[in-house]
Amino acid sequence: MTRDSSGMLNAFAEGNHLPAETVALIERRKALLGKSYRLFYAEPIHIVRGEGAWLFDASGRRYLDAYNNVASVGHCHPRVVEAIRRQVAILNTHTRYLDENILDYCERLATTLPPGLGRMVFTCSGSEANDLALRIARYNTGASGVIVTRFAYHGVTEATARISPSLGAESVGADNVRLVQAPDTYRLGESAGAAFAEDVRTAVASLKADGHGVAAMICDTIFSSDGVFVRRDLLSEAARVVQEAGGLFVADEVQAGFYRTGQFMWGAQRHGVVPDILTMGKPMGNGHPIAALALRAELADRFGEHVRYFNTFGGNTVSIAAARATLDAIIDEGLGANAATVGDWLGEEILRLACEQDVIGDVRQAGLFLGVELVGNQDRRTPAAALAQAVVNQMRRLGVLISLTGTYGNVLKIRPPLIWGREHVDLFVATLAQSLSEARREIHDA
Fold first, then answer.
1. 34 burial via Cβ count (<10 Å: 0-12, 13-18, 19+)
2. Which of 57, 101, 99, 46 is nearest to 325 (CA)?
3. Would you say 171 and 164 are in contact if contact means Cβ atoms under 8 Å apart?
4. Pick the CATH number of 78-332 from 3.40.50.1000, 3.10.180.10, 3.40.640.10, 2.60.40.1180
5. Average model confidence (pLDDT) for the chain?
6. β-bridge mates for residue 372, sequence order
7. Do residues 198 and 188 touch, judged by C-beta distance below 8 A?
8. Could you tell me which CATH number the domain at 20-73+335-445 has?
9. In this structure, what are the phi and psi dihedrals at residue 396, rounded to the nearest 5 degrees?
10. Which of 9, 63, 75, 121 has a Cα-to-Cα distance from 245 of 20 to 30 A?
């Protein structure tokens, strides 16, 4: 495994030989921020600027960003920057005053949502959105039980950390949470969706038997922390099982939403599922701290009649300006179609590379979200976690940024900005090919 003590993948560990200025900055950071903050890569990067698909370090070296999905329309998109600059010079305040801008945004966003999700509530982060979704689900159902996948990540609040086993063993401990195995299409094939639904049935029965009932199943619609599973039939039966048991299906779209998966604006739409609640996060504001949930009107109204909820900066005027500009850029610049086309190119090129590199066991791609599983043996599908870690760090040395995911820590996680073009694909694939070859030699010689 390639996790640190907290369960984090691709985490910096002490002991590498680093430049003196880097060591000094790390020590200063440790003294001021403490041990909870983690750094990426064996050799951490001091990033000082972003532009489009690129990040730049303190020396001026540029890195192709294939990972930071919060900058969904590219780093420092001029349209978003100008919208924030203009609004912050006029007014930044909360939602207890009348303002048409938030309403205009809601109306435009609503045209993209699955049917029936007629109410919206704004927060500052996906963690807050998922936390509120849990509260609403428990209030409306009268139950407390929650179902999540075995290596899920849904946030860092007290409540969402309890349903985020990817944060480490210390996070999940509540007796009203049931973990189910994600639908691993690489190992289970065509039966993955049915096996997932059966696991959910078992979890439902367990929660009811223990007196918790079923409040919700919350699911990242591309299973990004579990290893990125993209087949379009994986969620529908499991969601139906939960809803028939009286629970709500919460689609966590923080990573899969806003055309990340190409053809559809929302990941749940790929599975033909209409969620009861849909949550979204910082990609909606191109990295600005804004998030939201959309939900059925009766759920929102029943909760709102009896429970007071207010978030000072949730949906503030500057955040809404950022979100409006981001949505306009996505739609006006055709970034959904671009994600589908460029993502297909990228997937096809990596599949070609797999013919030369037998350590690539599986390529899972939907739009510009990919999981590339590395294995030590094709027939046994043995996870190659050490190789995956070496590849990530070698790509970083060559100027391309990705990370890892999955139960075994052997899946390359690739989520570039939606603005990527063919030139970025070509550079990425060439760098991946070189990194795979060099990492394999490095491990062989060790």
1. exposed
2. 101
3. yes
4. 3.40.640.10
5. 94
6. 363, 412
7. no
8. 3.90.1150.10
9. -60, -40
10. 121
